[in-house]
Amino acid sequence: MQPITELVLASHNAGKLKELQAMLGKDIRVRPVSDFSAIEPEETGLSFIENAILKARHAARVSGLPALADDSGLAVAALGGAPGIYSARYADGQGDAANNAKLLAALQGLPDAERDAQFVCTLALLRHAEDPLPILCEGLWHGRILHAPRGEQGFGYDPLFWVPERDCSSAELPAAEKNRISHRAKAMEILRRRLGIA
To answer: I want to staple 119 with a disulfide (CB 3.0 to 4.6 A). Which of 125, 144, 164, 183 is the partner?
Structure first.
């Protein structure tokens, strides 16, 4: 496979762009799909993998570049894996604060022992829009849901996600630390190996 020096990230999320650029390093330039199109493809897949491929294929098509898509979310055991693939739009697209409030309401009254959750990240890399063999990498980050938000770092559900091995919420971790241990970091580590990036 030809070395990739530039790719398009199939996301309009500035937080994801910043995290993934930091994880990929300086040898690969990451451009947001918004440089090429304001249209977001409909996420009609029923799994993180399907949605990641849909987004990567769209980004490769509009940019002409290799495309990387990250479909990730939070899966809460007590909610049957919800919000899952609907994590970003759990509260009907009203944003992070509304998503967090809805999650807390759904878990109200549950003790810590029943608040297990995991962040899931699926990365799909397509070399071109018609690539029949996407590179797929998955990372999982286990923790539990707090009863109230803690911390100011990160985005999404980070303030509610307790990281047992660090005794703090994801939103209390410095960005560099989160980028070493998160679901996205684990998936990216696999991708870096597949791409031969040290």
So the answer is: 183
- Joined together, the tokens standing for residue 193 give 């190996």
What residue numbers does the annotated binding site for substrate cover?
A: 11-16, 72, 155-158, 178, 183-184
Cα within 13 Å of Cα(113), Cβ side = 0
What are the catalytic residues?
Answer: 71
Binding residues for Mg(2+): 42, 71
What's the pLDDT at 138?
Answer: 97
Q: Which domains does the chain have, with CATH numbers?
A: 6-195 (3.90.950.10)
DSSP per residue, 77-130: GGGTT-BGGGGGGTTTT--HHHHHHHHHHHTTT--GGG-EEEEEEEEEEESSTT
Q: In the block, which residue shows the tokens 């899931």?
A: 120
